[in-house]
Every structure is written in C-alpha cells, then in structure tokens.
Amino acid sequence: MENCVFCKIIKKEISSSIVYEDEKTFAFLDISPASLEGGHTLVMPKNHYKFVSEMSDEDSKAIALTIKKLSKALLKFGEGMNIIQNNNKIAGQYVPHVHFHLIPRFKGDGITIEKWSSHKYKDNRAMEEIANKIKSLLKD
Ligand code: 5GP
Ligand code: ZN
Predict the structure, then answer these.
(1) What CATH number corresponds to the domain at position 65?
(2) Could you list the residue range(s) of the whole structural domain that residue 87 is in?
(3) Using an 8 Å Cβ cutoff, are 39 and 104 in contact?
(4) Which residues contact 95 (CB under 8 A, 6 or more apart)?
(5) Cα(118) to centroid of ligand 1, in Å?
(6) Residue 99 designated active-site
(7) Looking at residue 34, what is its pLDDT?
(8) Which of 44, 51, 67, 84 could be stapled to 99 by a disulfide with Cβ–Cβ 3.0 to 4.6 Å?
C-alpha cells in the first residue's frame, strides 16, 4: 500500500534492522524500543491489512508461527516477554499496518504495560450479558 511506512520497510525502500523474513512475514526492531535494553521487535504480515481481524487465514497462520519462532529467541534475549497488538487509534495504533509488538522484559526495565487497573462486574448477570453479546457477534 502506497504511503504505508511498514510496506516501505518490507519492500526495503526504507531501511530497518531486520530480524526475520520469510515469504509471508517480516520482523524488524522498533526504532523506539519500550526499554533501554532494546530487543523490542515488530512482527507483521507482508500483505497490508489495518486490523488483525482483516488478515487472511493463511497470513494469520504464518504470523502465529513467526511469533512463536521469534518468541523462542526473545525469551532467551530477555527474562520474559509481552506480546501487544494494537487495533485502531483508541487502542494506541499509530501505524495502520497490522503488527505485533514483541517486547523482551528485564528486571527493573520500568515497563508497566501489564499493570492495568482492574474492575469488577456488577454481578454475574452483567458478566453473562457481555459474554452472550460477544458470542452473538462471533456469528457475524
Ligand atoms: P503502534 O503504536 O502503531 O502499535 O506501533 C507503531 C510502532 O512502530 C511504534 O512503537 C514506533 O516506534 C514504530 N515505528 C514507527 N515508525 C517506524 C520506523 O520508521 N521504523 C521502525 N523501525 N519503527 C517504527
Ligand atoms: Zn502497509
């Protein structure tokens, strides 16, 4: 897709620190890593999609395998790892080419992504209503 910075990186029109590439997927270092220790890697399909929900089954399977492969390396690089994938601006997506953040974790790295404040459903019924709504949306 024209004007997509990640499509340009995949086509090597813009340089990046490439970590892995195969027929369907591509991975390179995030230019602004989440911690000083680095290793923050972006994994994406070569085909352009905005959201994870738009990906073809073939690309979805390929990306899962690439994430698994890179996870093995990054779990040796750091002591732990978070996988984050943002869809749409409200969720923090700035580059509209679907990508997964693989973020190696280190003691004292100062990253707080896993520490969202948690809430309680009013009661079991309120929780069930939401589960049912999602189940009905699965049928669309
Ligand atoms: P998002 O917020 O869309 O989930 O994440 C986009 C990520 O892409 C950001 O963490 C940002 O640092 C990274 N990024 C944006 N432009 C470039 C670039 O030109 N090169 C590299 N290597 N990373 C980029
Ligand atoms: Zn793109």
Answers:
(1) 3.30.428.10
(2) 5-138
(3) yes
(4) 4, 5, 6
(5) 28
(6) yes
(7) 97
(8) 44
